[in-house]
Amino acid sequence: MRTAVAAPRHDVPVGVLEGRVTGLSGLTVSLSGLRDFTGVGDRVTIFGLDGRETDADILPFHINTAIIMPYGSLEGIGSGCRAMFQLFDPEQRRRRAGGTLVVNDAWQGRVIDPMGRPIDGKGPLPPDGVPQKLHAPPPEAALRARLGPRIDLGVRVLNLFATCREGQRLGLFAGSGVGKSTLMGMLARNTDCDVAVIALVGERGREVREFVEDDLGPEGLAKSVVVVATSDTSPLMRREAAYAATAAAEHFRDQGKSVLLLMDSVTRFCQALREIGLSSGEPPATRGYPPSVFAELPRLLERAGPGLPGPDGKAGQITAMFSVLVEGDDHNEPVADAVRGILDGHVVMERRIAESGRYPAINVLRSLSRTVPGCNSAEENALTRDARADLSTWEEMQDMVRLGAYRAGNDPKVDQAIRIAPAIEEILRQGRGEKATIAESFDALRAALSPPGTP
Ligand SMILES: Nc1ncnc2c1ncn2[C@@H]1O[C@H](COP(=O)(O)OP(=O)(O)OP(=O)(O)O)[C@@H](O)[C@H]1O
Ligand SMILES: [Mg+2]
């Protein structure tokens, strides 16, 4: 092993570059000796005093010192410890720059970590596959295919009031414990797609197994790739979980498939970015989030959506649902704000509705899909418009009605809402094992809006 001498970048030697730990602070390590051939985002291996190896990413450089953050714990890393960087020939270097993930179709049905290693105890995965860039740019906007036809999500309330097209990206805004995981499981099982890729970012360890076994179930898992980084892992791992899942979704999209990408949650992804940014010396800006978070977030979210059309004119699609944690109904929190601006619609889940026992606890009046009404027929649009109007009147008036302060016959609009809204609420209710196609959803709404006996 040798330390490479400085040489112009185009003349990269093949071998190993060695550095030494000069300092440790918080979550980061400073390294000397890695200059001239390494850059931000490159991955190095660091050897602890006990010989343990840990991978780490280079964050920024300060003068000649690389600041790195390990994927594992810092325990056993001390001053003078060795760090290694693999030097590749220029072609390999170009391919590997910024990190790649080798994705294999056999990932379907499996639970993996952000490095693509299986963590479900079901044995090894094939080591080969297609290299995918972890930080790939989104397809060129002008060349990108358009959104596909509407996609059947198998969940009535979404099929009716947030009708989605293939390649659309939605935000799912929810507090804790309102039924997010259950809804994601239902979507993975019920959606009319070829593959579902699910990223669990920063969940508690116990929840992962519960999600896979109870919410997803064997049927959902069979068509899913589940990428997991729990809350106790390093912020780099949590960040990579989002990138690895996106890269896997892109892999299937590039095969022309219809992919459903579910990410729970982008808030925890942003919190990981915040930890990384602050550790590498960035200043905190909006509520402690450094500016890089809001530069990075759109780059991730934009990668979902339509792919490039193939020779036959058809394109694969990534339809995506990104969950955002809203605590105490604070919808103006910076991550929620940024996400709302980037995506093509939002679905709001509310504790009040969950407490009333209606699941999925989605507030129809506050949810919106920007591609509706374009993807529904005129008759379907009229149905959802009428239903929304009834629900809105009902929301305004229900306290008065319950208190007996409203006298039937005073306002035909209110009378209609009193008659119809409970029936619509009944349609919005859906058990976790139940599936409803778009046609079934509209049939149910049609029947609720014109009950037998009405003209
Ligand atoms: N469709 C449904 N039908 C009946 N009950 C439901 C439904 N969805 C959710 N629930 C109830 O709500 C509870 C919480 O659901 P879930 O675990 O999916 O919420 P969560 O938002 O993921 O919670 P956390 O924030 O803790 O991860 C479930 O245990 C279940 O009792
Ligand atoms: Mg959950």
Summarize the structure.
The protein is α/β, with parallel strands linked by helices and 455 residues long. Helix content is 34%, strand content 22%.
Summary tags:
455 residues, Thrombin, subunit H, Rossmann fold, Substrate Binding Domain Of Dnak, Chain:A, Domain 2, nine-stranded mixed beta sheet, 19 strands, 34% helix, elongated, binds adenosine-5'-triphosphate, binds magnesium ion
Give the overall silhouette.
elongated
Identify every distinct bound molecule in the structure, by name, code or SMILES: adenosine-5'-triphosphate, magnesium ion
Structural class by SSE content: alpha/beta
Distance between the termini: 87 Å
Might you state the CATH topology name of the largest domain?
Rossmann fold
| % residues in beta strands | 15-25%
**CATH architecture term of the largest domain:** 3-Layer(aba) Sandwich
| CATH class group of the largest domain | Alpha Beta
Uncertain residue ranges: none
Question: What share of the residues lie within helices?
Answer: 25-40%
Total beta strand runs? 19
Gyration radius from CA atoms, angstroms? 25 Å
Largest sheet: 9 strands, mixed
- Count of distinct structural domains: 3
Question: How would you state the average pLDDT, rounded?
Answer: 88
Instruction: Supply the number of helical segments.
Output: 12
